[in-house]
Amino acid sequence: MPYDASLNFVFWSPTKVVFGENTALDVAIEVENLKCKKALIVTDRDLAKNTEIPEKIKKVLGNLCVGIFSDVEPDSGIHIVNQGAKLGKELGADCLVSVGGGSAIDTAKGMAILLKEGGKLQDYMGFQILTRPQTPHIVIPTTAGTGSEVTYVAVIKDHQEGRKLFFGDYNILPNVAILDPRMTEGLPSILTGATGMDAMCHAIEALHSLQREPIADGIALHAIRLIKEFLPRAVKDGKDMVARGQMLIAANMAGVAFSNAQVGMVHALAHSVGARFKVHHGLANSILLPACLKYNADECGGIYLDVLSAMGVDIGGISPDEAGNVLADKITEFTRKLCLPQRLRDVGVLEEGLKECSEIALSDGAIVYNPKFISDSAEVLKVYREVW
Ligand SMILES: [Fe+2]
Prior knowledge:
The protein is an alpha/beta fold. It has helices at 27-33, 45-50, 53-61, 78-91, 102-117, 189-208, 214-236, 241-261, 265-277, 281-310, 320-337, 354-361, 377-387; strands at 16-19, 39-44, 65-72, 95-100, 126-127, 137-141, 153-158, 163-168, 176-179.
């Protein structure tokens, strides 16, 4: 889709990316490059309990590691960030190595703030509040989806209020992302599919965002090509290291794209239903995506033709008016083949909660960038009902 003379944007992606099998084993080099000596590993309970990954990272860090904080839960909350920061302070940590999915990475971003600034995490909520670089942070993702290793965003749950808090600040961008396919080898197929669809949503939402721009467009379109080709392979065979590696790259690229261009209503609706009903973020996105594409179809025909083309569809006979519906059907076909749930009711969402979710979604930061302006929660409710 062409741009007119009013185009202006800033593209920012300073995180160093290291890719390759077993590159996580060289994490000590990155700690030393950052001139740090006391790394605290931040990981989630499940990974610490059921895999040897955190211990392996600790071992290769040797005396550069002061400990492991392994209390991160899915949808990590403020209290977890506080506990982690307290431990970090006690151990004198001068850098963080997060090992895990979005929850561990975002927890470490929150801890990076508290270790540097002190005070209450809520004081830094919002957009661009911090004025200086935060505690150095190296990320080793164990899922391929969130892209959080290259974004300036952290989403932390306020369990008391039952909502997700948004932190958007260039000063929390991780310093280094180590993409090692071996780290995602053990991810179950359902989570591989769900996190992969989160990346797909990042790429598509970056493309249809009001803040879209050509550099992010190019990155997002290639991420879509990779996801289309390699996500089914990674879901089918978790040991397929080529597919695992290409999915890590795709998720990373989609992360770069949306960190610059933002996301829209798919994420706004997924955040709300995720906070209320504990639906996995990737699954919520995956379920909501087709209905949101249809909702935005009349504004985004040309963009959706580009997405279809990146997905390998011959767009010769498809008009821009038809593109939204055709793309919605293609996405549904794609997620069915990945054996992912198709309805919100399949993932524990109760119909009576949809109205409240639609009201909360309307105040989500992501909805501002949706290509079609939404000011009425009844419109959101209609979309929720369509996929309930
Ligand atoms: Fe996401």
